[in-house]
Amino acid sequence: MAVSRVPSPPLQETNTPVAENWCYTQVKVVKFSYMWTINNFSFCREEMGEVLKSSTFSAGANDKLKW
User: What pTM did the predictor assign?
Assistant: First the structure.
């Protein structure tokens, strides 16, 4: 998810509170899937139905997103 803030002027309303600064927030949701291959999977000692966890990795060049 990417969040950016762009300054924008206030809406013109008769009962608008007085403020020195205004801000507009836009949220963009980026969806993707990630597939990896597990080498030597047959050597994993987990039983059927047990959880197999991977180490943390980042998606592409953006190291801010950790999975």
Answer: 0.27
